[in-house]
Design brief:
Layout: E1 6-11, H1 14-24, E2 29-35, E3 40-46, E4 51-56, E5 75-79, H2 82-91, E6 100-101, E7 108-113, E8 119-124
Parallel strand pairs: 1-4, 5-8
Antiparallel strand pairs: 2-3, 3-4, 6-7, 7-8
């Protein structure tokens, strides 16, 4: 295994989720298709070294757990300037938690949520990497 290729997310409201990931977070769309046989949209978004596959399905069940349950806990985005990204999101109406410091790496991070409550993180990294 060499890298993460994609992360798949099912939104309860496709247009709202598409607007959040594409317009609010600023992830470019690679391709978008409607799969008529499944009554489902699929939108591939460029997330740097990986892609986010955003899906819609008729009446998906709600997320059954909180982040501390077994399974995927959250999705984290690397950013060079955490303060600027938090300010950019807050101007767009996205509430971020207070910035914290990772006690093991001394890096700053914060959490926020997508329209369905999926926990997302911004993690500050050195601009060169």
């Amino acid at each position: 295994m060499r890298a993460i290729h994609h992360i798949a997310i099912i939104g309860s409201d496709y247009q709202r989720s598409r607007a959040f990931y594409h317009e609010t977070l600023g992830l470019p769309i690679i391709r978008e298709v409607f799969r008529e046989e499944r009554a489902s949209w699929k939108c591939d978004l460029d997330a740097g070294n990986a892609q986010i596959e955003l899906f819609s399905f008729p009446k998906p069940p709600p997320r059954p757990s909180r982040p501390e349950a077994c399974g995927l806990r959250h999705l984290s985005f690397a950013v060079a300037d955490l303060d600027a990204e938090v300010a950019r999101l807050e101007v767009r109406g996205v509430a971020c938690e207070p910035i914290r410091i990772d006690p093991y790496t001394d890096k700053r991070f914060t959490f926020f949520a997508d329209p369905d409550g999926l926990p997302l993180e911004l993690y500050e990294v050195d601009p060169a990497g």
